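Hi support team,

I've been running sequence recovery on a batch of backbones for a student project. Most finish fine, but this one hangs at about 90% for roughly twenty minutes before it completes. I'm not sure whether the input is malformed or the queue is just slow. I've pasted the structure tokens below so you can try to reproduce it. Let me know if you need the job ID as well.

Thanks,
M.K.
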């Protein structure tokens, strides 16, 4: 097993850091736009046994990656373990600790092993070892900035925000920024609204 880790200070109490990870859009918000990873399905929230299914690009194809939450310990962290996917083994541990009354420490630790014996492990080490530090840096910097932005308005009521173009690059990022801040987003769509998807049909011409 190889390991990549990152540890960063977060500008909110550990309880607020934990609560952020429970909100809709948390995983999507932490996924870099260059990764092209798509959430396909979810079962449950952040709880032992809950699963997330991803479509992950591997070369010219997409493969299914199923991760299961385990070792959930509010507000101190949880782990994601690959159940099915491109690696022989993948465990991502999220650890959250208090750093005084107004700050916290987030540590992400990923242990992984490539498939197909020593050759596969060497290829995975070269590919993942180059990309994973950049991914964790993006996640930590994005999260710290978002938490600081939301904390500035923490004493104000949460809002309901309608968004047009919510499936575009900017609209998607804005949607996940708002939902992880505790706000409710209503997406205006030009086709039929899907039940339970927080959508409203509209015709911009009229």
């Amino acid at each position: 097993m190889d390991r990549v880790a990152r540890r960063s200070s977060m500008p909110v109490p550990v309880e607020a850091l934990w609560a952020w990870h429970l909100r809709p859009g948390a995983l999507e918000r932490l996924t870099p736009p260059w990764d092209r990873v798509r959430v396909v399905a979810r079962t449950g929230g952040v709880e032992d046994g809950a699963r997330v299914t991803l479509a992950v690009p591997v070369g010219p194809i997409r493969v299914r990656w199923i991760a299961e939450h385990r070792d959930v310990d509010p507000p101190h962290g949880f782990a994601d373990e690959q159940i099915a996917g491109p690696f022989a083994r993948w465990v991502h541990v999220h650890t959250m600790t208090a750093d005084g009354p107004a700050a916290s420490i987030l540590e992400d630790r990923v242990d992984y092993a490539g498939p197909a014996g020593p050759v596969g492990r060497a290829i995975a080490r070269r590919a993942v070892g180059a990309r994973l530090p950049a991914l964790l840096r993006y996640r930590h910097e994005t999260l710290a900035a978002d938490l600081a932005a939301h904390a500035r308005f923490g004493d104000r009521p949460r809002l309901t925000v309608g968004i047009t173009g919510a499936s575009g690059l900017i609209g998607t990022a804005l949607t996940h920024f708002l939902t992880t801040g505790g706000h409710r987003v209503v997406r205006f769509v030009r086709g039929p609204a899907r039940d339970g998807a927080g959508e409203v049909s509209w015709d911009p011409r009229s």
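--
Follow-up from support: It reproduced on our side and the slowdown came from queue contention, not your input. The CA atoms of residues 188 and 200 lie 5 Å apart. No action needed from you.
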